[in-house]
Amino acid sequence: MGLIDEAGTMEGELIELRHALHRAPEIGLHLPQTQARVLDALDGLPIELKAGDQLSSIVGVLRGGDPGPTVLLRADMDALPVLEASDVAFRSQTDGNMHACGHDMHTAMLIGAAHLLSARSGRLRGSVVFMFQPGEEGFDGAGKMLDEGVLEASGSVPVAAYALHVRANEVRHGTFASRPGPIMAACDHFSVTLTGRGGHGSAPHNAKDPIPAACEMVSTLPTFLMHNVSAFDPAVITVGQIHAGNRWNIIPETAWFEGTVRTLSPHAKEVIATGMTRVCEGIAAAHGLEVEVEYESQFPLTVNSADEATFVAATVADVFGPECFLEMPNPVGISEDFSRVIAAVPGAMTFLGAAEPGADFMNLADNHSPNAVFDDSVLIRGATLYAELATRRLAGYPGAMACE
Q1: Which of 59, 174, 213, 250 has its CA 20 to 30 A from that of 230?
Q2: Cα(263)–Cα(267) distance, integer angstroms
Q3: Domain ranges of the chain
Q4: What is the pLDDT of residues 42-87, one digit of tens each?
Q5: Cα 355 from Cα 327, distance rounded (Å)
Q6: Which CATH architecture has domain 3-183+301-403?
Q7: What is the C-alpha to C-alpha distance for residues 246 and 252, in angstroms, rounded to an integer?
Q8: What is the reported pTM?
């Protein structure tokens, strides 16, 4: 029985597991219920398990029957602070929390792969590291797991690392999508605080109003971007929130706004990081205000190894058919802390379309939406691809050679 057929025999169990995870979403680095459920699902397998020291991570090591290299497979486990609006029967039972990005799917898929690979451990030439990661949604769980030694878990640094990410829209059901090179943007965070002098709304000349200056900064930053970063080097500056004042007839003393920067090159990142402060300081000075700009690099650009991305494409075509792989023409603006893993070792991030079969997938709710819905039937596809990538890579498929 092949891996895909064997995965089909556990479909009901994977769906049940995914639903259980979906009902009990947890946020951040500490996911005690999720961790316990994953450990229970791995119980009895010939996998060496270690829980994280500073976070609810799980690292599993499956050692093959023969010595060889190590391959790492990663799934993120955390949810989002989103109030679920979908009407699925297994909807979240924690108000305000939701698996709106499909991490419950990733976790179930990797557990499925752990079972598939464990059944074949005697035939593996090398080791597989299973990286169950909390805190992907803005908490840098991957960075913390690197600090705790996930890349050294088997005794040898992985020769390749792979991750899957489901998409609620934009990718057809059951289709895998990836590309060599940059696939996901770098993510930075900025906040700007302006300080002036408060006063009465009837006498703005006696105050130093920070609100007009804040508005000018927000409207000027896109123009600054256009004139300093090439249109062929995509970058985005988005202000996500702005706050000032607490009453309609009072000029406040302070105003504050924050947002995100997404870039696809180190050059654009550097231009924006340095130029944003200059723009805000200039506008503040023109208004007679003090300003503090805080700029923080969060996650680097996610860059797929050309060989590993080619290997993923070849594996998908061989296992599922060439029509099931889409080479993405462009990267996407979302970001991932898996970028830290494949900056350290060669690897690839791959998307998997999880919209309902036959749905108008381009117009469905996106990941992170309270209406996001992911179809259970792709679980066995994800579990199969995880297991196939590990098996084939350990069997001696060095990236692009898999196409021959």
Answers
A1: 213
A2: 9
A3: 3-183+301-403, 186-299
A4: 999 999 999 999 999 999 999 999 999 999 999 999 999 999 999 8
A5: 18
A6: 3-Layer(aba) Sandwich (3.40)
A7: 8
A8: 0.91
